[in-house]
Amino acid sequence: MTIDKNALGFGDVARAAYACDPWESRGRLYPEGDSLTRSTFQRDRDRIIHTTAFRRLKHKTQVFIAQDGDHYRTRLTHTIEVAQVARSLARALRLDEDLAEGVALVHDFGHTPFGHTGEDALHEKMAAFGGFDHNAQSLRIVTKLERRYAEFDGINLTWEALEGLVKHNGPLADATGAGLDGPIPQPILDYSERHDLWLQTHASLEAQVAAIADDIAYNTHDIDDGLRSGYLTFEMLEEVPFLHALMTEVGNRYPGLEASRFTNEIMRRQITAMVEDVIAVSQANLKALKPASADEVRHAGRTFASFSPEMSEIDRQIKKLLFTHIYRHPDIMEIRKGAAQIVTDLFDAYIADPTLVGDQPWTDSIAELTPAQLARNVADYLAGMTDTYAYNTHRRLFDHTPELR
Fold first, then answer.
1. Residue 285 forms part of a structural domain
2. Residue 236 covered by a domain
3. What is the pTM of this model?
């Protein structure tokens, strides 16, 4: 028996003219035939989920490290929540849901152990060799470091998925090719020379909704985790009028509700308000500019998927709340100090003696590597570590390892 492609339902999706069309993709660096059962962007999403990098996210820090408890978000659960919000936004705006979900699922691949603390420490150690950037590292993972296929390194994602990965937060270069926020990370420049990712333009609307979904997800779940940890209290939430109003609404409707349910009722209302705000703003922008294709979105010179001015102010207030009471809390800062020490010590140890690396990550013979190549290979290896692996490795190599709780 053979598959009837016309009966599979791919053509039933009512995508808007400005959405990315999987059947009109700019293709992959290494050309491949089409699948009989999945669209091009579905295959991207599926490949992302089956990577080693995706599985490692379950043991990488979001805010609270694994030792703090099983119920806190990790990079993996954060990523899944971002993908859910991105897909909801994509459906409402008649975009390609699979592409939006794929960009959301891959957006944190390049994060080091211990979250942004590990990234900052690794960036400092790599300063003489082009620095370290988690978006650029995500690109290295999916184009080089994942080795699953016989015919190519990486997972050979489509141009649209890679563009979304690299530019979901906006263009990287101005019209002259100069970096907008400092030098463009070298791994991105190197790949774009082979497979031009249009670094001067905005990304597709699918990538834009993945980016704003990231903000919505962590603004909400970091409050949830903060309340669970005790670093936040309901009284502290009253510092943000928007959250105070949500608590008043829930309290009036459900008097005496237990704390866990009360928290969830606040969070679900917060997500709904933010999602609906982004949809309304995006629809207004689309109505005003009337892009007739995905490329017109890229060349519009602005972001379509964003918060309204009112919600942007709420977003700013929530971030201030989180920075004040969680991210910059003395206890968290002390843990971050220890985590940075672990990453720094491991980097120095591997540079001094690359043979300490048990599972060879080297792309070339160690003896043939320049100092810059050696440092990049060490950075690749360290960035791939989970929190627990980095912690245990440090305990094995050093006499004293900082306590991370």
1. yes
2. yes
3. 0.93
